[in-house]
Design a protein that fits this description.
The chain is α/β, with parallel strands linked by helices and about 475 residues long. About 25% of the residues lie in helices and about 15% in strands. The protein contains 14 helices and 14 strands. An eight-stranded mixed β-sheet has the order 4-3-5-1-6-7-2-8, sandwiched between helices. A four-stranded antiparallel β-sheet has the order 9-10-11-12, covered by helices on one side. Strands 13-14 form a two-stranded antiparallel sheet. A hairpin with a 5-residue loop joins strand 13 and strand 14. Helix 7 packs parallel to helix 8 and helix 8 packs antiparallel against helix 12. It is globular. The two termini are about 45 Å apart. The structure holds calcium ion. Calcium ion binds next to loops. It comes from Conger conger (Conger eel). It holds the Pfam family Sulfatase.
């Protein structure tokens, strides 16, 4: 693999976003624009992680994901920029981090966040290029004019349980979409499966594998068993959807992408920018690159790269945002989170380069917030009860340590894969800290991050944008 691809200048990267990179470039896969019809099926799971045999978890059976993996390049280092549903989905569908597209938090209900009106999303650009667009399942982003789809069965016009969870119904909707295809018109179909926790439990708590960041307790094991069941249902859905694609004759001209929006809904997972909250499964199945099928790649991928990858597949030009960032090293991904629910203001920025992860917790003096769904989960309730009673938690952190974080957290995942030892205060790591801080800051400026000066200065954007000091002791 060409290690310089992520560092190449935009002018040299015919057709790739300056901010991110399309995966064809990253993997040295050549995509040549021609008259052959190409389609895309984008499958984004909800809160799914590595609970699949594709990623060597032998406690769960996901035969359809495994079959897809045999026709895919399997990414070992893929990351979301933000560990929250709507912000992540907006980033996936625009190629812009949440602070740049405006979707700072959840879209639905009282949270009410939306992308900026001028954002040119993937479905908008594809629609303008004459490509038929479809969405099935939870949409969770807005406003409507920024994310238009020709064919839409979402929570906006249906029961989300029917279009997001009922896999038989989803199969019928995929069939309906494919039967509506005009000859020679390409399509982009986006399927978003939805949440867990309502399914019968096919797995026992004893069967599950407990990752390092989850307490090994009966409560957490039961929750994990439910997560496995959800993934199994998703896997069945993937089997049905891919069968529809095959039977409609589109298997050999459709790029299939599978990933998830954010970390799994467990402590240190969703809403966190640690590895456990931001690492994602990623399968890229191109019918035109069969020699790469089954390959495992260590290349770093950001879910921001989905938009340029899909645009490249269709040979559709990129929007020319004046706010685009600069070239990114091939082994580097960035993270940016501001809120989840409207009350959960806890801005974080991160950079992950090779084995190193740096997290900047801007509001580190306040406790890390907990979301409503996670709060009522048996895993978290058990953690609270055990902590209050002074009983062992079987967790790798204390609640206090989870709530109160250092402003800068620097981890070396080679020596410390669980990210438990903060190296930022260690003078021996001073040069590394300095370098990663500079890299992160550069990305924030390049992507017009309104939070770029926090928490010790104010961004004064008039004339020459600059940080003006607050002298607040930070
Ligand atoms: Ca989610």
């Amino acid at each position: 693999m060409n290690r310089n691809l992520r560092g190449r200048k935009f002018e040299e990267m015919t057709n790739c976003y300056r901010l991110s990179v399309c995966w064809f470039m990253l993997l040295n896969l050549c995509v040549i624009g021609e008259s052959k019809q190409r389609n895309v099926l984008l499958i984004i799971a909800d809160d799914a992680g590595f609970e699949t045999d594709v990623y060597n978890n032998t406690a769960i059976r996901t035969p359809h994901l495994s079959a897809l993996a045999r026709r895919s390049v399997v990414f070992q280092n893929a990351f979301t920029t933000v560990s929250s549903c709507s912000p992540s989905r907006s980033a996936i569908l625009t190629g812009l981090p949440q602070h740049q597209n405006g979707m700072y938090g959840l879209h639905q209900g009282s949270h009410h966040f939306s992308s900026f009106d001028g954002v040119q999303s993937l479905p908008l650009l594809l629609g303008q290029a004459g490509i038929r667009t479809g969405i099935i399942g939870k949409k969770h982003v807005g406003p409507g004019q920024v994310y238009p789809f020709d064919f839409a069965y979402t929570e906006e016009n249906n029961s989300v349980l029917q279009v997001g969870r009922n896999i038989t119904r989803i199969k019928v909707l995929v069939r309906k979409f494919l039967q509506g295809q005009e000859a020679d018109r390409p399509f982009f179909l986006y399927w978003h499966g939805t949440h867990p926790r309502l399914d019968p439990q096919y797995y026992t708590p004893e069967q599950v594998k407990v990752p390092y960041f989850i307490p090994d307790t009966p409560a957490a094991r039961a929750d994990l068993a439910a997560q496995y069941t959800t993934i199994s249902r998703l896997d069945q859905g993937i089997g049905l959807v891919l069968k529809e694609l095959r039977e409609a004759g589109f298997e050999n001209d459709t790029l299939v992408i599978y990933s998830s929006d954010n970390g799994i809904p467990f402590p240190n997972g969703r809403t966190n920018l640690y590895w456990s909250g931001s690492a994602e499964p990623l399968l890229l199945s191109s019918p035109e690159h069969q020699r790469r099928w089954g390959e495992q790649t260590q290349a770093y991928a950001s879910l921001l790269d989905i938009t340029p990858t899909v645009l490249d597949w269709f040979s559709v030009p990129y929007p020319s945002y004046s706010i685009m960032g600069g070239p990114t090293p091939w082994d580097t991904v960035f993270g940016s989170q501001s809120l989840h629910e409207v009350t959960m203001y806890y801005p974080m920025r991160s950079v992950h380069q090779g084995p190193f992860r740096l997290v900047h917790n801007l509001n580190y003096l306040m406790p890390f917030p907990i979301d409503q769904d996670f709060y009522v989960s048996p895993t978290f309730q058990d953690l609270l009860n055990r902590t209050r009673a002074g009983r062992p938690t079987a967790w790798f952190k204390t609640l206090r340590g989870y709530y109160y974080r250092d402003r800068w957290e620097l981890f070396d995942r080679r020596a410390d894969p669980a990210e438990t030892r903060n190296l930022a205060p260690d003078p021996a790591h001073g040069p590394l800290l300095h370098r990663l801080r500079a890299l992160l800051l550069k990305w924030q400026w390049a992507t017009s991050d309104p939070w770029v000066c926090g928490p010790d200065a104010v961004l004064e954007a008039k004339l020459t944008p600059q940080c003006r000091p607050l002298f607040n002791g930070l």
